[in-house]
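Hello, quick one for you while I still have it in my head. Could you read through the record and tell me how the tokens relate to the sequence? No rush at all, and the record is pasted right below.
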Amino acid sequence: MLTLKNVSVSYGDFQALRNVSLEIQEGELIALVGANAAGKSTLINTISGFLRMSEGDIEFEEQSIKKLEVYDRVKRGIIQVPEGREIFHYMTVKENLDMGAYTPLAMKKKEENIRKIYELFPVLRERQWQLAVSLSGGEQQMLAIARGLMSIPKILMLDEPSLGLAPILVGQLFGVIMTIKSSGCTILLVEQNVSKALKIAHRGYVLENGRIVLEGSSVDLLTNPNLKKAYLGL
């Protein structure tokens, strides 16, 4: 579904990504892990089109998208749930969800999708007429994911969804991600909780200083001594 070929990205003289290559098959949940400032958010923002590559190519469904604008990538089903949630605080929960359904296909299926969203996130049905700013941190993260799902993603990219959440809420969040995975949605998960991310993923990539340094099945990565020492504290 998605292929990155030798992607490099620079901020001025600083090279944030160096010849990054990866691929994601339809229906997979791929974990992208690494330390802070490794380039994980840069990679997601490049796939979304917010950042331009200095070298390389990105193919989605076997067609190059490197020249497409952000909104054209969204129309094709490339949906990002950004780090920090970025919800519209002074709009209601329902209005936030409506904002996710602005492509022609999503508009057509909006009522059907919002019913599915309320089944997946019952708390959002209860809070639908509240301002988003009044929600707890966990509820705001659920709203951000739900807004992304309203766009009918072919691939859903989650950037640090558990950041700042209490442990009990992290468990609930990963349960939701598992449910989305079981629906057949392809997911790219950028996550600080390396162990939890790999336990629910099919495969993973480890990014370090803008380069892919490890890749493999989740089982292989979880038992890799270098990864265990560097990221799991073992």
